[in-house]
Amino acid sequence: MFERSNASGLRTDEQHEYAITAVRAGEELRVTLTWYDPPASTLAAVALVNDLDLEVEGPDGRVYRGNSLVEGVSKEFCTRERYNQMRNTTARCRQAGPNDADALNNVEQIRLTAPTAGHYKLRVKGSYVPGTDLVGSDRQGYALVVSGAFGPAQGKAQLAAPTGVRVANRVALPTPSATVQFSAVANATGYQLYRLEGGCTAETTAKSYRLVAHQSADQGLTLVDPLIDDGKNYGYAVRAIGGDVEGRVSQCVTSASTAVANATPETPCTNLIEQQQSCRVEAESSRAKYQQCMNNHALWLRDQGLISNDEVVGVRQCVAQQSLAQN
Protein backbone atom coordinates (compact mmCIF):
# COMPACT_ATOMS: atom_id res chain seq x y z
CA MET A 1 0.00 0.00 0.00
CA PHE A 2 1.15 3.55 -0.80
CA GLU A 3 -0.34 6.28 1.39
CA ARG A 4 -0.02 10.04 1.21
CA SER A 5 -1.50 12.59 3.59
CA ASN A 6 -2.87 15.87 2.27
CA ALA A 7 0.35 17.60 3.29
CA SER A 8 2.29 15.53 0.72
CA GLY A 9 -0.59 14.95 -1.67
CA LEU A 10 -1.38 16.18 -5.16
CA ARG A 11 -2.38 19.51 -6.63
CA THR A 12 -4.02 19.99 -10.02
CA ASP A 13 -1.90 18.54 -12.88
CA GLU A 14 0.58 16.85 -10.53
CA GLN A 15 1.07 13.07 -10.47
CA HIS A 16 2.84 10.37 -8.48
CA GLU A 17 4.16 7.25 -10.21
CA TYR A 18 4.90 3.96 -8.45
CA ALA A 19 6.07 0.61 -9.80
CA ILE A 20 5.39 -3.06 -9.24
CA THR A 21 8.40 -4.61 -10.92
CA ALA A 22 7.62 -8.33 -11.08
CA VAL A 23 3.95 -9.18 -11.47
CA ARG A 24 3.48 -12.89 -12.11
CA ALA A 25 0.95 -14.20 -14.60
CA GLY A 26 -1.92 -16.44 -13.58
CA GLU A 27 -3.46 -14.50 -10.69
CA GLU A 28 -5.80 -11.53 -10.67
CA LEU A 29 -4.22 -8.10 -10.24
CA ARG A 30 -6.22 -5.32 -8.57
CA VAL A 31 -5.19 -1.72 -8.01
CA THR A 32 -7.48 0.47 -5.89
CA LEU A 33 -7.26 4.20 -5.23
CA THR A 34 -9.29 5.98 -2.56
CA TRP A 35 -9.19 9.33 -0.77
CA TYR A 36 -11.02 11.48 1.78
CA ASP A 37 -12.69 14.16 -0.32
CA PRO A 38 -13.50 17.47 1.43
CA PRO A 39 -17.22 18.13 1.90
CA ALA A 40 -18.90 19.73 -1.11
CA SER A 41 -21.34 22.59 -0.98
CA THR A 42 -24.95 21.51 -0.52
CA LEU A 43 -25.70 23.41 -3.77
CA ALA A 44 -23.02 21.63 -5.83
CA ALA A 45 -24.27 19.68 -8.86
CA VAL A 46 -21.45 17.12 -8.38
CA ALA A 47 -20.50 15.87 -4.90
CA LEU A 48 -16.83 15.22 -5.76
CA VAL A 49 -14.59 18.21 -4.99
CA ASN A 50 -11.04 16.97 -5.56
CA ASP A 51 -10.78 14.66 -8.58
CA LEU A 52 -7.91 12.17 -8.64
CA ASP A 53 -7.51 9.59 -11.40
CA LEU A 54 -5.87 6.18 -11.46
CA GLU A 55 -3.92 4.82 -14.42
CA VAL A 56 -1.90 1.61 -14.81
CA GLU A 57 0.50 0.88 -17.66
CA GLY A 58 1.45 -2.74 -18.30
CA PRO A 59 4.71 -4.16 -19.68
CA ASP A 60 3.22 -4.61 -23.16
CA GLY A 61 2.07 -0.99 -23.63
CA ARG A 62 -1.51 -1.61 -22.56
CA VAL A 63 -3.02 1.14 -20.39
CA TYR A 64 -5.95 0.89 -17.96
CA ARG A 65 -8.03 3.64 -16.34
CA GLY A 66 -9.75 3.56 -12.96
CA ASN A 67 -13.41 2.44 -13.09
CA SER A 68 -13.30 2.02 -16.86
CA LEU A 69 -14.68 -1.54 -16.85
CA VAL A 70 -16.37 -3.97 -19.21
CA GLU A 71 -18.20 -6.78 -17.42
CA GLY A 72 -16.10 -6.16 -14.31
CA VAL A 73 -12.72 -6.24 -16.08
CA SER A 74 -10.69 -3.15 -16.94
CA LYS A 75 -10.95 -1.92 -20.51
CA GLU A 76 -7.71 -1.88 -22.52
CA PHE A 77 -6.26 1.31 -23.96
CA CYS A 78 -2.73 1.78 -25.24
CA THR A 79 0.28 4.05 -24.98
CA ARG A 80 1.17 6.31 -27.90
CA GLU A 81 4.08 4.01 -28.76
CA ARG A 82 1.85 0.93 -28.91
CA TYR A 83 -0.76 2.84 -30.90
CA ASN A 84 1.84 3.85 -33.51
CA GLN A 85 3.14 0.28 -33.74
CA MET A 86 -0.34 -1.12 -34.32
CA ARG A 87 -1.96 1.58 -36.44
CA ASN A 88 -1.18 -0.17 -39.74
CA THR A 89 -2.13 -3.64 -38.55
CA THR A 90 -5.45 -5.39 -38.17
CA ALA A 91 -5.02 -5.43 -34.38
CA ARG A 92 -6.04 -1.91 -33.38
CA CYS A 93 -5.98 -0.19 -30.01
CA ARG A 94 -7.27 3.15 -28.74
CA GLN A 95 -5.58 5.78 -26.61
CA ALA A 96 -7.51 6.88 -23.53
CA GLY A 97 -9.16 10.29 -23.65
CA PRO A 98 -10.69 12.70 -21.10
CA ASN A 99 -14.07 10.95 -21.28
CA ASP A 100 -12.45 7.69 -20.13
CA ALA A 101 -11.63 9.13 -16.68
CA ASP A 102 -13.96 8.90 -13.68
CA ALA A 103 -14.83 12.39 -12.41
CA LEU A 104 -17.60 11.36 -9.98
CA ASN A 105 -16.19 8.93 -7.41
CA ASN A 106 -13.48 9.00 -4.74
CA VAL A 107 -12.82 5.26 -5.13
CA GLU A 108 -11.31 3.96 -8.38
CA GLN A 109 -10.22 0.43 -9.25
CA ILE A 110 -8.42 -1.38 -12.03
CA ARG A 111 -9.00 -5.14 -12.28
CA LEU A 112 -7.04 -7.51 -14.53
CA THR A 113 -8.10 -11.15 -14.36
CA ALA A 114 -5.23 -12.38 -16.54
CA PRO A 115 -2.36 -9.88 -16.26
CA THR A 116 0.73 -10.15 -18.44
CA ALA A 117 3.83 -10.90 -16.38
CA GLY A 118 6.29 -8.07 -15.93
CA HIS A 119 6.72 -4.47 -14.83
CA TYR A 120 3.66 -2.30 -14.12
CA LYS A 121 3.60 1.48 -13.65
CA LEU A 122 0.93 2.88 -11.31
CA ARG A 123 0.03 6.56 -11.69
CA VAL A 124 -2.13 8.72 -9.44
CA LYS A 125 -3.04 11.99 -11.14
CA GLY A 126 -4.35 15.22 -9.68
CA SER A 127 -6.81 15.93 -12.48
CA TYR A 128 -8.61 18.76 -10.68
CA VAL A 129 -7.89 19.71 -7.06
CA PRO A 130 -9.52 23.07 -6.32
CA GLY A 131 -10.07 22.36 -2.62
CA THR A 132 -12.53 24.28 -0.45
CA ASP A 133 -12.20 26.77 2.41
CA LEU A 134 -10.88 23.91 4.59
CA VAL A 135 -7.21 24.42 5.44
CA GLY A 136 -4.97 22.08 3.44
CA SER A 137 -7.69 20.86 1.06
CA ASP A 138 -5.93 22.33 -2.00
CA ARG A 139 -3.67 19.25 -1.81
CA GLN A 140 -5.28 15.82 -1.90
CA GLY A 141 -3.84 12.81 -0.12
CA TYR A 142 -4.82 9.23 -0.91
CA ALA A 143 -4.24 5.53 -0.35
CA LEU A 144 -3.23 3.22 -3.21
CA VAL A 145 -3.60 -0.53 -2.59
CA VAL A 146 -2.30 -3.29 -4.88
CA SER A 147 -3.10 -7.00 -4.62
CA GLY A 148 -1.99 -9.88 -6.83
CA ALA A 149 0.88 -12.27 -7.53
CA PHE A 150 4.04 -10.26 -6.95
CA GLY A 151 6.73 -9.90 -4.31
CA PRO A 152 9.67 -12.11 -3.30
CA ALA A 153 9.66 -15.86 -3.24
CA GLN A 154 8.45 -17.40 0.00
CA GLY A 155 11.08 -17.36 2.73
CA LYS A 156 13.21 -14.63 1.13
CA ALA A 157 14.61 -12.25 3.76
CA GLN A 158 13.40 -8.66 4.01
CA LEU A 159 15.95 -6.09 2.81
CA ALA A 160 18.14 -4.44 5.44
CA ALA A 161 17.55 -0.89 6.61
CA PRO A 162 19.57 1.85 4.89
CA THR A 163 22.48 3.15 6.98
CA GLY A 164 24.20 6.52 7.06
CA VAL A 165 20.90 8.38 6.92
CA ARG A 166 21.40 12.13 7.36
CA VAL A 167 19.71 15.41 6.52
CA ALA A 168 22.17 16.83 4.00
CA ASN A 169 20.42 20.13 3.43
CA ARG A 170 17.43 22.15 4.60
CA VAL A 171 16.33 25.14 2.53
CA ALA A 172 13.99 27.87 3.77
CA LEU A 173 13.78 30.05 0.65
CA PRO A 174 12.41 30.36 -1.96
CA THR A 175 10.65 27.00 -1.40
CA PRO A 176 11.22 25.13 1.89
CA SER A 177 12.59 21.60 1.43
CA ALA A 178 14.71 18.98 3.18
CA THR A 179 17.25 16.72 1.45
CA VAL A 180 18.03 13.31 2.96
CA GLN A 181 20.98 11.11 1.95
CA PHE A 182 21.69 7.47 2.80
CA SER A 183 23.83 4.46 1.87
CA ALA A 184 22.86 1.87 -0.74
CA VAL A 185 21.18 -1.41 0.20
CA ALA A 186 22.10 -4.55 -1.74
CA ASN A 187 19.40 -5.74 -4.17
CA ALA A 188 17.24 -2.63 -3.68
CA THR A 189 15.16 -1.52 -6.66
CA GLY A 190 13.96 1.69 -5.01
CA TYR A 191 13.79 3.79 -1.86
CA GLN A 192 11.03 5.56 0.07
CA LEU A 193 11.32 8.57 2.40
CA TYR A 194 9.05 8.84 5.44
CA ARG A 195 8.43 11.88 7.63
CA LEU A 196 7.51 12.32 11.30
CA GLU A 197 5.99 15.57 12.56
CA GLY A 198 7.94 17.04 15.46
CA GLY A 199 11.27 15.28 14.99
CA CYS A 200 12.66 12.01 16.36
CA THR A 201 11.38 12.16 19.93
CA ALA A 202 10.09 9.20 21.92
CA GLU A 203 6.55 10.55 21.50
CA THR A 204 6.65 11.07 17.73
CA THR A 205 8.48 7.87 16.81
CA ALA A 206 5.64 5.87 18.35
CA LYS A 207 3.32 7.40 15.75
CA SER A 208 2.98 6.47 12.09
CA TYR A 209 5.50 7.61 9.52
CA ARG A 210 4.05 9.32 6.44
CA LEU A 211 5.38 8.70 2.94
CA VAL A 212 6.63 11.94 1.34
CA ALA A 213 8.97 10.87 -1.50
CA HIS A 214 10.09 7.80 -3.45
CA GLN A 215 12.31 6.91 -6.39
CA SER A 216 13.95 3.99 -8.17
CA ALA A 217 17.43 2.87 -7.12
CA ASP A 218 19.00 4.08 -10.37
CA GLN A 219 18.01 7.66 -9.48
CA GLY A 220 20.59 7.83 -6.70
CA LEU A 221 20.82 7.86 -2.90
CA THR A 222 19.21 11.23 -2.22
CA LEU A 223 15.53 11.90 -1.55
CA VAL A 224 13.92 15.34 -1.19
CA ASP A 225 10.89 16.29 0.87
CA PRO A 226 9.64 19.30 -1.14
CA LEU A 227 6.65 20.23 1.02
CA ILE A 228 7.88 21.24 4.46
CA ASP A 229 6.91 24.07 6.79
CA ASP A 230 10.12 25.88 7.70
CA GLY A 231 8.72 26.61 11.13
CA LYS A 232 8.49 22.92 12.10
CA ASN A 233 10.86 20.14 13.16
CA TYR A 234 10.67 16.84 11.29
CA GLY A 235 12.05 13.34 11.65
CA TYR A 236 12.99 11.28 8.59
CA ALA A 237 13.50 7.57 7.95
CA VAL A 238 14.23 5.61 4.76
CA ARG A 239 13.20 2.18 3.54
CA ALA A 240 14.60 0.20 0.63
CA ILE A 241 12.27 -1.60 -1.78
CA GLY A 242 13.19 -5.05 -3.10
CA GLY A 243 11.01 -7.59 -4.87
CA ASP A 244 8.08 -5.14 -4.54
CA VAL A 245 8.23 -5.31 -0.74
CA GLU A 246 9.42 -2.67 1.74
CA GLY A 247 12.61 -3.41 3.66
CA ARG A 248 13.35 -2.56 7.27
CA VAL A 249 13.02 1.06 8.39
CA SER A 250 16.19 3.05 9.01
CA GLN A 251 17.14 4.99 12.10
CA CYS A 252 15.22 8.26 12.46
CA VAL A 253 17.13 11.52 11.92
CA THR A 254 15.84 14.96 12.88
CA SER A 255 15.68 18.01 10.66
CA ALA A 256 15.41 21.00 13.00
CA SER A 257 14.12 24.41 12.06
CA THR A 258 15.93 27.50 13.31
CA ALA A 259 12.62 29.31 13.03
CA VAL A 260 11.12 27.22 15.86
CA ALA A 261 13.32 28.76 18.54
CA ASN A 262 12.41 32.30 17.47
CA ALA A 263 8.75 31.70 16.79
CA THR A 264 6.10 33.51 18.76
CA PRO A 265 3.91 31.00 20.61
CA GLU A 266 0.43 30.71 19.16
CA THR A 267 -2.81 29.63 20.72
CA PRO A 268 -4.15 26.36 19.29
CA CYS A 269 -6.66 28.20 17.13
CA THR A 270 -4.75 31.34 16.12
CA ASN A 271 -4.95 30.42 12.44
CA LEU A 272 -7.55 27.68 12.41
CA ILE A 273 -10.48 29.68 13.75
CA GLU A 274 -9.67 32.78 11.73
CA GLN A 275 -9.75 30.70 8.55
CA GLN A 276 -13.03 28.94 9.35
CA GLN A 277 -15.54 31.76 9.04
CA SER A 278 -17.79 29.28 7.24
CA CYS A 279 -18.44 27.61 10.60
CA ARG A 280 -19.74 30.89 11.98
CA VAL A 281 -22.04 31.31 8.98
CA GLU A 282 -23.28 27.73 9.24
CA ALA A 283 -23.84 27.99 12.99
CA GLU A 284 -25.47 31.45 12.78
CA SER A 285 -26.33 32.32 16.39
CA SER A 286 -25.93 28.81 17.85
CA ARG A 287 -22.69 28.40 19.79
CA ALA A 288 -23.27 24.64 20.08
CA LYS A 289 -23.45 24.27 16.30
CA TYR A 290 -20.34 26.42 15.92
CA GLN A 291 -18.42 24.24 18.38
CA GLN A 292 -19.52 21.08 16.55
CA CYS A 293 -18.54 22.52 13.18
CA MET A 294 -15.07 23.47 14.44
CA ASN A 295 -14.62 20.09 16.11
CA ASN A 296 -15.52 18.26 12.88
CA HIS A 297 -13.06 20.39 10.94
CA ALA A 298 -10.26 19.77 13.45
CA LEU A 299 -10.87 16.00 13.22
CA TRP A 300 -10.75 16.20 9.43
CA LEU A 301 -7.40 18.00 9.57
CA ARG A 302 -6.06 15.37 11.97
CA ASP A 303 -7.13 12.56 9.62
CA GLN A 304 -5.21 14.27 6.80
CA GLY A 305 -2.05 14.38 8.94
CA LEU A 306 -2.08 18.20 9.13
CA ILE A 307 -2.51 18.53 12.92
CA SER A 308 -1.95 16.26 15.91
CA ASN A 309 -4.38 14.89 18.50
CA ASP A 310 -2.98 17.42 20.98
CA GLU A 311 -3.84 20.24 18.57
CA VAL A 312 -7.39 18.89 18.21
CA VAL A 313 -7.77 19.11 22.00
CA GLY A 314 -6.34 22.63 21.87
CA VAL A 315 -8.88 23.71 19.28
CA ARG A 316 -11.73 22.37 21.41
CA GLN A 317 -10.45 24.25 24.45
CA CYS A 318 -9.97 27.46 22.51
CA VAL A 319 -13.48 27.30 21.00
CA ALA A 320 -14.94 26.60 24.45
CA GLN A 321 -13.11 29.63 25.88
CA GLN A 322 -14.47 31.82 23.08
CA SER A 323 -17.99 30.63 23.87
CA LEU A 324 -17.53 31.43 27.59
CA ALA A 325 -16.26 34.89 26.72
CA GLN A 326 -19.40 35.55 24.70
CA ASN A 327 -21.71 34.63 27.60
According to DSSP, the number of beta strands is: 19
Fraction in beta strands: 25-35%
Widest sheet: strand ordering: 2-10-4-5-8
Q: Which descriptor suits the 3D outline?
A: globular
Rounded radius of gyration (Å): 22 Å
The residue-averaged pLDDT reads 83
Largest sheet: 5 strands, antiparallel
Helix content: 10-25%
How many independent structural domains? 3
List key phrases describing it.
327 residues; alpha+beta; Jelly Rolls; Immunoglobulin-like; five-stranded antiparallel sheet; 6 helices; 19 strands; 31% strand
Walk me through the structure.
The chain has 327 residues and is an alpha+beta fold. It has three domains: 2-147, Jelly Rolls (Sandwich); 166-262, Immunoglobulin-like (Sandwich); 277-326. It has six helices and 19 strands. The strands form five sheets. The protein has a five-stranded antiparallel β-sheet with strand order 2-10-4-5-8. Strands 14, 15, 17, 18 and 19 form a five-stranded antiparallel β-sheet that branches. Strand 17 (234-242) and strand 18 form a beta hairpin. Helix 4 (277-283) packs antiparallel against helix 5 and helix 5 runs antiparallel to helix 6. The radius of gyration is 22 Å and the shape is globular. The N and C termini lie far apart (49 Å). Mean pLDDT is 83; it is low at 261-268.
